[in-house]
Amino acid sequence: MLQLCNLNGQLANRSTLIHFPRYDARNEEEIEIFQNILLTFQANMPIEVERDLEVDWESLYIRSIGCVGACKLLLNKAVATALEESAKILTLDHIEHVAHSLQQCE
Description:
The chain is mostly helical. It has a single domain, classed as Orthogonal Bundle (Helicase, Ruva Protein, domain 3). It has seven helices and two strands; from the N terminus they run αααβααβαα. The chain starts with a helix and ends with a helix.
């Protein structure tokens, strides 16, 4: 998207860049917001979840680098994997199977 703004002067003048920072795991309020987002995702999943995603928030935070959009994609892939296996429950193993490695996250 940033490249599109620089195509010509008209686009640059008509565009406003908005930066949405990642959630900060050092801030208790932001941790709570991130956990609430996980519960919202869980409530809208077409499959039952083994346990509340809120319990595994740290793992999901690390694997999504604190970005809600990346977390949503990760959970979408995990749900798709579980449904392909005809699993009735989404497990942490499904999530870890599709997640980026810790080195990729760094």
